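#struct-help
A.M.: can someone run this one for me? Single chain, 256 residues.
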Amino acid sequence: MSEPVGFPGGERANTGEPVGFPGGERANTGEPVGERANTSEPGLRVMVVDDHPMWRDSVGRDLTEAGFEVVAAVGEGAQAVRIAPSVRPDVVVLDLQLPDISGVDVTRGLLAVLPRARVLILSASGEHRDVLDAVKAGATGYLVKSASRAEFLDAVRRTGSGDAVFSPGLAGLVLGEFRRMAADPAPGTPRLTDREAEILRMVGTGLSYRQIAERLVLSHRTVQNHVQNTLQKLQLHNRVDLVRYAIEHGLDSGRA
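D.P.: on it. Structure tokens below:
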């Protein structure tokens, strides 16, 4: 895979210092890893999947220090899918380029065995096709490895909350694909109100409900109600499904 662009938290790759987790667990075993350093992120369980040992260890350490519970860290996609039901992560931080199977296939496999998990792609690649393929497979968000430590940790928090999170520029790509497909909606597409379609587009860019409410000068509850109505019409379960549906099927915001 391509070399990571920077290490979260400003870690240097050439210090020679051991990089691990509390409790002395090895980062590449697939076994539960360490205890949370604090309780700033109570209950949020994270699995890290990356074939680059130093990057994997550094990411896991940053997560642990931020208070996340790192339940496993592995270097192969098949292993991640195999252990997911037992370690039950809430969020999977997943590299797109793995030695055995692609991150896109891993995403599908993870969601097949653990449908409620959320996948955050953390990749050196910002190629448009990689981003769209990952989202279509079910990824909640996509972050490039040049992101800062603060951006990465915030993305994990937001992913755990169900937000669709993308690196700057990538959200516009996903929205552009949404608009392209909206110009030629699939047969049988449910008809949304103008307001529902407008909020759906904003959800697709990764905005939170509160941010949408501020932009549209609506209450937070009103935005939530519109999203719930949209979910019911499209027979979907959560906002991640909304983003994926928009890309796969397209919606025409001009139709009431």
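A.M.: thanks! The beta strands are 45-49, 69-74, 91-94, 118-123, 141-144.
D.P.: also worth noting: Residues 8-167 form a domain with the Rossmann fold fold (CATH 3.40.50.2300).
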